[in-house]
Amino acid sequence: MFFRKNDVHVPPDTPETPPPVPHSMRMAHWVYTLSDEWFIREDVYLEDTHYAYILLSRYGIYAIYMQPFMGYVVAQGMQLKVNGEPQDQLIRLIRSRNVFLEKILKTRVIPVAMFDNSDIRGFDLGGVKVANPELLVNYLEALQVVAVPLKSLNALNKHLRQAQDTSKST
């Protein structure tokens, strides 16, 4: 009795792997799986600074900074490496942008360096979270300690919307 190894016929014009999904769609897929306790502000522009996502909830305020790199990401001590190359300037840039956002919102904002489609080793780099979308959503959904009262959260969301509208008009 003979069995053919590949008995499935695949037309020659069918690609072997599907085309890659754009970064923004992958992140959007994960971030919108968060529970209804989260306010999700997408593509926020304040003055000349772009924030891919700002996530607000009783468990804290998180600013998501999408990174242009993907691959093997290691956050260890105070050093960030992507595919073996040091990328410490990214963390400095994120910190400076985060200070600006904290001044506008007048509250603590936790920055997240988002490496889409990447294997992450380490999570915290001196206050900056380093994550891929799946890791971040799992972390956020596991939070249990209330950091922001609900009344303050609604006020922060409104303040952020007003600050963004002001930036658009200038």
Distance between the termini: 77 Å
Strand content: 25-35%
Taking pLDDT < 50 over at least 5 consecutive residues as the criterion, the unreliable ranges are 1-11
Number of E-state strands: 10
Please provide the ordered H/E string of secondary-structure elements: HEEEEEEHEEEEHH
Helix coverage percent: 25-40%
Continuous helix count:
4
Shape estimate? globular
Q: Structural class given helices, strands, pairing?
A: alpha/beta
Average pLDDT level: 81
Largest sheet descriptor: 6 strands, mixed
The radius of gyration over CA amounts to 20 Å
User: Strand order within the widest sheet?
Assistant: 1-2-3-7-10-9
Q: If you had to describe this structure to a student in words, what would you say it looks like?
A:
A six-stranded mixed sheet has the order 1-2-3-7-10-9. 34% of the residues lie in helices and 29% in strands. The N and C termini lie far apart (77 Å). The longest helix is centred in the C-terminal third of the chain and has 20 residues.
Write the layout of secondary structure elements.
Blueprint (H helix, E strand, L loop, with lengths): L22 H9 L7 E8 L2 E9 L2 E7 L5 E5 L2 E4 L2 E2 L1 H18 L4 E5 L4 E3 L2 E2 L2 E4 L1 H10 L7 H20 L1
Parallel strand pairs: 3-7, 4-8, 7-10
Antiparallel strand pairs: 1-2, 2-3, 4-5, 5-6, 9-10
Task: Describe, in short, the structure shown.
This protein has four helices and ten strands. By secondary structure, it is α/β, with parallel strands linked by helices. The longest helix has 20 residues.
